[in-house]
Amino acid sequence: MFAHEHKRACVPSGELACHSSQFLIVCDGGRSRARFIAKMASRKCNATLEKFIEIYKSEGCLWRVKCKEYHDRDKRSTAYEKLKTKLKELEPTATKDDVIKKINTLRSNVRREEKKYDESVKSGASSNDIYKTTLWYFELFDFIGAQDVPRSSRSNISEIDENDSNISIN
After folding, report:
1. At 30, phi and psi to the nearest 5?
2. Are 23 and 7 in contact (CB under 8 A)?
3. Number of H helices and number of E strands within the chain?
């Protein structure tokens, strides 16, 4: 029996696999069974992504900008290889570029959720109305902390003003 739904495909061989956001699920004619198996595939994807994030966290050379290893190409390359191996469990044809895209996507999603939370706090919303994230891996990225915070800027205008006041105009 074959059935096609949004981002789901049934496989007659009984194969259960997870490819990025697609699920290959077993169809036995019952939709509830297919949903259960899709949830299991989703949990497998989440577990693999959780391990992916843990590896990323352990490799400070990829995200800790102030770390000496951050500028070491060999260490970064080795770290990307570890992540590529883990990502291949979800996407068998994954490359280093796919790993970089996955990291950027995950971090962008976390930043977007942080922004929504910060905006709801700044808006003066009551504690019941403050935005609560639904992103399951949001807290897994708590190690990033101040890495995404831009440095405070320094103005050189005051230096120019002082220099201008020493210039005499005749």
Report:
1. -100, 125
2. yes
3. 4, 4
Which segments within the chain are labelled E, that is strand? 4-5, 8-11, 17-19, 22-26
Q: Is the distance from CB of 49 to CB of 34 less than 8 angstroms? A: no
Query: CA-CA distance, 26 to 11, in Å (whole number)?
Result: 6
Kindly report the length of the chain: 170
Name the burial class of residue 152, with classes exposed (0-12), middle (13-18) and buried (19+) by CB atoms within 10 angstroms of its CB. exposed
Question: What is the dihedral sign for C-alpha 150, 132, 105, 48?
Answer: positive
**Count of beta carbons in the 10 Å neighbourhood of residue 63:** 18
Amino acid at 130: I
Half-sphere exposure of 5 (CA within 13 A, CB side): 13
The yes-or-no verdict on residue 59 having pLDDT over 60 is yes
**Cα–Cα distance for residue pair 110/9, rounded to 1 Å:** 29
What per-residue confidence (pLDDT) applies to 157?
76
Q: Is the pLDDT of residue 9 over 50?
A: no
Which SS3 state, helix, strand or coil, does residue 18 take?
strand
